[in-house]
Amino acid sequence: MSDAPTAVLGISALYHDAAAALVVDGEIVAAAQQERFSRKKHDPAFPLDAIRFCLREGGVAPDGLTAVAYYDKPLTTFVRILKSYVAAGPRGIRTFPKAMSEWSTKKLWTSLEIERGIRSLGWAMPKDLLYAEHHVSHAAAAFLPSPFERAAIITMDGVGEWATSSIGVGRGRTVELLREQRFPDSLGLLYSAFTAHCGFRVNSGEYKLMGLAPYGEPRYVDRILGELVELGDDGSLRMDLRYFDYLAGRRMTNKRFDRLFDGPARAPEGPITSREADLARSIQEVVERAVLGTARTARELTGESDVVLAGGVALNCVANGRLLREGPFDRIWVQPAAGDAGSALGCALWAYHDVLGHGREVRSTDAMHGTYLGPRFSGEAIAAELTEAGRPFERLTDDEDRAERVAELLADGKVVAVLQGAMEFGPRALGHRSILADPRQPDVQRSLNLRIKNRESFRPFAPAVLAEEAAAWFDLDQESPYMTLVAPVARSRWVEPVTTSGSSTGRAGGTEGAGATITDVVTEVRSEIPAVTHVDHSARIQTVDAERAPAFHRILSAFHRQTGCPVLVNTSFNVRGEPIVNTPADAYRCFMTTDIDHLLLEDCLLSKADQPPWDGPETPIELD
Q: What pLDDT was estimated at residue 515?
């Protein structure tokens, strides 16, 4: 009997957010998105760089792969595409040739693409190439790394093969899907339709729509539920396709949709009006009702008291927070890489546990290792490169001294970017590739958005809080290590809203009031931590514990000792339209081409004032 490790490589690719993940003897060893290497946001390309990293990180021998798993069944998806064009009729004529070209030249040959890619990297292709159904991949990503021995499973996204959402159950090492919603009825596509109509990019701007929602009023809810969607008490929905154009592959909505919602789609980069805010608030309410209905059905079908979630809709942390507060489950766990990138991990775990039949160890925290599954870099190597390049830095090799120094800078109002430890897997920066700031400063949100992130001023920032102090600052009764839950700032921390000029607004938020604009509302101070308090007093929370994130926990602890505040602004280390930084070179370029004050590269601390003039490429800023 062979003692060789069982190594399973999972791959998602060719649509958006391509990624790779490696599971060795049941342990999640490595995972990364292709975009972090190619620097192309949401890169759909076959993830050669991510695969190379995973196999090297796992020490897989050239002939050491046991199996490769793919997150989707291409032939089933192809049949759905063909039937969709038939249903669309003449409307799909313009886009049909391009779609068929993509399928005939690449997507129908996925097995050859996988084999050719792995061999080109120097590894032998294993005997087993396994294809998981799309929502099975999501379900496995949700349940198998979770801290639960058994749980209900909910997956929701745009579409995978035919399914657009599913309810299942996980027990031990297996996942089973019990019920599904089928294309073209899709909660994810419905939300994306409103994303596009409000002028944001589909598969990229949905979180902007979620951030815009609290500025509006739900005045379109009745119109959505009366004309556009039939929403059942069980969470199922039926969409009136006369208002949509996605069957033809042209755009999400049509002129009938425009008439229903009082005008054409907002032009990208155009001014955001109260209509867009009201549309965002309205569709957010509909999504939350659908999630709660689905959750009630999942509880009835499975009898389980805990639930796990994945799929793109599971990244709607506002809906997740409402599910936690109002839903039928005792505990919820959301896969931090809930979108298609996380399905690379899901199909690898499915292959290892379900297909190959290996047992599963349940861990009290979870099996995600804090999502710190990407590349890491040594302080020694970074110091040598900085010295050779003539870039001044301060070396801080003692962990506690380094944390105290960074905390001092933050308490002094400086913006500090950090690259430390392994890169995060998934869309959230969780203290290893982050930009940090003092949340007590009232102008930090607007300043970070406009001077560093180059993004819309209305968008909120997330707080990172010491896990042991979270209950004193937020109304949250469970941990949220992956920024997957929104909860209110504790009422004891609220202040009467005032503008940054110091005048009282006399109201608690929203865009109501004579002459009020979104910009006016952004500048209001609503709590002791205004930089991370949204217009409705909510926050997308990261609880930081010493086990998952010791380095970040030390910085927060030092800031707490120095200021009495255990909270920091934590936003991803990138600018708009660019993926989160991966390497020290990525980080230095972003540092030098934005208004970040200091940069921590492992144990090397750099000050912008000390650096030689930057003569390299600018950080690309693209519309997203």
A: 41
Q: Using an 8 Å Cβ cutoff, are 369 and 188 in contact?
A: no
Q: What's domain 379-420+428-578's superfamily in CATH?
A: Carbamoyltransferase, C-terminal domain (3.90.870.20)
Q: What is the CATH number of domain 187-334?
A: 3.30.420.40
Q: Are strands 27-33 and 538-544 parallel, antiparallel or unpaired?
A: unpaired
CA distance 600 to 403: 10
Q: Are 313 and 344 in contact (CB under 8 A)?
A: no
Q: First vs last Cα of the chain: how many Å apart?
A: 52
- Residue 454 has a pLDDT of 77
203: which 2 tokens?
């598969």
CB contact at 8 A, 311 and 159: no
Residue 436 belongs to what H/E stretch? strand 433-437
Smallest CA-to-CA distance from 533 within 623, 447, 463 is with: 463
Common-topology check for domains 187-334 and 379-420+428-578: no
CA dihedral 65, 70, 75, 76 (to 10 degrees): 140
Q: How far is CA 423 from CA 30, 65, 162, in A?
A: 10, 24, 33
According to the model, what pLDDT value does residue 364 have? 92
Is the pTM higher than 0.70?
Answer: yes
Which of 23-32, 241-250, 509-518 shows the lowest per-residue confidence on average (mean pLDDT)? 509-518
Predicted confidence (pLDDT) at residue 63 exceeds the cutoff of 90: yes
Structure letter (DSSP) for residue 214: G
| Residue 505: pLDDT over 60 | no
- Distance CA(66)–CA(60), nearest Å, equals 10
Mean pLDDT of 3-18: 94
CA 369 to CA 173: how far, in whole Å?
Answer: 19
Quick check: helix, strand or coil at residue 324?
Answer: helix
Cβ atoms 323, 293 nearer than 8 A: no
- Phi and psi, residue 510, nearest 5°: 85, 180
Q: Tell me the pLDDT band of 78, cut-offs 50, 70 and 90.
A: confident
Cis omega (within 30 of 0) for bond into 184: yes
pLDDT of res. 514 = 36
Tokens representing 404 are: 């105290």
Residue 489 clears pLDDT 70, i.e. is over it = yes
From 225, 263, 257, select the one nearest 241 (Cα to Cα): 257
Q: Where are the domains of the chain?
A: 7-144+337-371, 187-334, 379-420+428-578
Which of 401, 433, 459, 407 lies closest to 566, judged by CA? 407
Q: Which class is domain 7-144+337-371?
A: alpha beta
Residue 395 parent element (H or E): strand 394-395
Q: Hunting for tokens 């649509």 — which residue is that? A: 15
Tens of pLDDT, residues 330-386: 999 999 999 999 999 999 999 999 999 999 999 999 999 999 999 999 999 999 999
What percentage of the chain has pLDDT greater than the value 90?
A: 80
The CA distance from 329 to 320, in Å, is: 12
